[in-house]
Amino acid sequence: MIVVDSNVLAYLYLPGEHTAAAEALLESDADWAAPVLWRSEFRNILAGYLRRESLTFEQAHRIQTEAENLLAGAEYEVDSLSVLELVRDSECSAYDCEFVALAMKLGTKLITMDGKILRAFPSVAVALAEN
Q: In whole angstroms, what is the distance from residue 48 CA to residue 54 CA?
């Protein structure tokens, strides 16, 4: 099992520079997990595509549903103390620290392309490109 952040999910479903890496990651390890927060972040990413008219409403809804199906049964709550401790000890947002806290809780890696997370938590965070 690995924890993925919302951007890795976006790379998987929204074709771009990192899509091939996200697809390869899914092929090598399909047991993905995320904090419940991922849903809101992912919807916000899709909202941007909708507003730029890069996706239709139907496409955005289909992508959200596919992503929810991928993570079905692998969405976790994280405790506030863990998140706040990580915030205290880094310059990362509380949102980002939810993903880090979950990876630590599950004893696994967080796959991300977020440079701030990669620098702050090198023992937990691994770049998508390195995986």
A: 8
SS3 29: coil
> Dihedral (C-alpha) 19, 75, 3, 29: value to the nearest 10 degrees?
-60
Q: How far is CA 50 from CA 8, 19, 53, 80, in A?
A: 19, 19, 5, 32
Burial pattern 45-60, b for ≥16 Cβ within 10 A else e, equals bbeebbeeeebeeeeb
Cβ neighbors of 82 (< 8 A, separation 6 or more) are: 101, 104, 105
Instruction: Read off the DSSP letter of residue 31.
Output: -
Spatial contact of 83 and 101, defined as CB atoms under 8 Å apart: yes
Q: Token pair for residue 110?
A: 């967080």
With helix as H, strand as E and coil as C, how does 75-128 read?
A: EECCCHHHHHHHHHCCCCCHHHHHHHHHHHHHCCCEEECCHHHHHHCCCCEEEH
pTM: 0.95
Record the tokens describing residue 62, joined without a space: 């289909």
* pLDDT tens by residue, 40-49: 999 999 999 9
